[in-house]
Specification:
Elements (H helix, E strand, L loop, with lengths): L1 H13 L13 E3 L3 H9 L1 H9 L3 E3 L2 H10 L2 H4 L3 H12 L10 H7 L3 H7 L17 H15 L7 E5 L5 H10 L2 E6 L2 H10 L5 E5 L11 E7 L10 H11 E14 L8 H7 L8 H8 L4 E7 L2 H21 L5 H19 L3 E9 L12
Parallel strand pairs: 3-4, 3-6, 4-5, 6-7
Antiparallel strand pairs: 1-2, 7-9, 8-9
Helix pairs in contact: 1-2, 2-3, 3-16, 4-16, 8-15, 15-16
């Protein structure tokens, strides 16, 4: 049985030019013959968990994932866990308010010590902007300045930052543009550190769900950078309606969002369990369908390839600094976190997942909006 499963696996992997126990950087090395049965039975969950358990290895996991995604292996192996996740995504509101803090507790609160060593100096946990840059720190600064330019930020403006992370954008906007920023996060660790990093600046960090934002307050600008992936399709309308209420009539709103061609129909069980619980990557069309009735879409900018570079930079920081934090974790966490970073890099490299900046206005920018790249 194991040999037949292995042969079947090899026939599929041949489509991606991957050899079992081959010698190239993207060839998979199988240490436990039960890997085949586990993957065919459990799909991406089995693939990820068997890697965590040390059942298989690959020299360059990012290249391996890039290749299997390009042949749409996720569509070739349908498993009960995948079908169940699809059902949950379509039928249930897994991003309802009672679940809002789960992703903060399970992912963003794993330890500020880890994130400080993994991310760049400004602790941006979204893609850098690598145009004309040489390293992660430069890419982080370029990204923050890009956002400020895209929203035409002026001195002294007020900004609402929904999903503010460790307040990296808030700190930058306050320091460089004297902006007054209100940031919202569902992570206790992010809120605590964000407040320390912004001490003495006109920045307020609030630990709350976006549905509890005070919509009587109006802001010159609103940004939401890498947050909508936690909102869920059943809540998009409410999410964007809240933003519209908070934005002044002549204001601008910038959304940074993943998008993928498979959208809601293929929620990944491994990511849902270990990385981003209750997460849902939207399709660009889903965002457009909701927002076109509420806003004028002024600009769309896809820089998904930059996320590949960013994730690889995070991975190298993680590997190079692991000895400093490994006593706080274990080997299984190390393999899980490595799998997360490298597999996401492979996803973006395959171009099946994109990263967008979308700029909105409420009534259209008089004379037209000037795109910034």
């Amino acid at each position: 049985m194991s040999n037949s499963l292995k042969d079947h696996a090899q026939r599929i992997l041949d489509l991606a030019d991957i050899k079992i126990n081959g010698n190239r950087p993207w060839d998979i090395k199988v240490h436990n013959e039960n890997t085949y049965k586990r993957v065919f039975a459990q799909g991406t969950m089995g693939l990820g968990e068997s890697y965590m358990d040390g059942w298989w290895d690959v020299e360059n996991l990012d290249q391996f994932v890039d290749r299997i995604i390009r042949i749409q292996l996720n569509k070739k192996i349908l498993t009960p866990s995948l079908i169940f996740n699809v059902f949950k995504a379509k039928i249930l509101n897994r991003q309802k308010k009672s679940r809002a803090f789960e992703v903060g507790e399970k992912h963003y609160d794993v330890g500020n010590d880890l994130y400080k060593l993994m991310l760049g100096k400004r602790m941006i946990y979204t893609s850098g902007y690598w145009k004309n840059t040489q390293d992660l720190d430069e890419a982080e600064n370029a990204k923050l300045e890009l956002v400020c330019k895209k929203i035409n930020l002026e001195k002294g403006m007020t900004i609402l930052d929904i999903g503010c992370g460790w307040a990296s954008f808030a700190k930058y906007a306050a320091e460089k543009y004297d902006a007054k920023v209100t940031g919202v996060t569902v992570s206790k660790e992010q809120a605590e550190l964000g407040k320390k990093l912004c001490a003495g600046l006109p920045v307020e960090i609030i630990l709350q769900d976006y549905r509890d934002i005070d919509t009587t307050k109006k802001y010159d600008r609103v940004v939401s950078i890498g947050m909508i992936e936690h909102v869920g399709p059943r809540n998009y309308k409410k999410y964007f309606e809240i933003i519209k209420k908070c934005l002044k009539d002549d204001g601008l709103f910038l959304l940074e969002s993943f998008s993928c061609y498979w959208g809601i129909s293929q929620s990944d069980p491994f990511s849902d369990k270990y990385i981003f619980p209750n997460g849902s990557i939207p399709q660009l069309g889903q965002i457009v369908k909701v927002t076109e009735k509420l806003f004028v879409i002024e600009d769309c900018h896809n820089f998904g390839d930059d996320y590949d570079k960013t994730l690889m930079a995070w991975y190298h920081n993680f590997i190079n600094n692991w000895d400093k934090v490994k006593n706080n974790y274990n080997e299984k966490f190390f393999r899980m976190w490595s799998y997360f970073l490298l597999s996401f890099a492979g996803l973006f490299r395959s171009r099946s997942v994109q990263n967008w900046h979308i700029v909105f206005s409420k009534k259209g920018v008089p004379g037209g909006y000037t795109s910034i790249r």
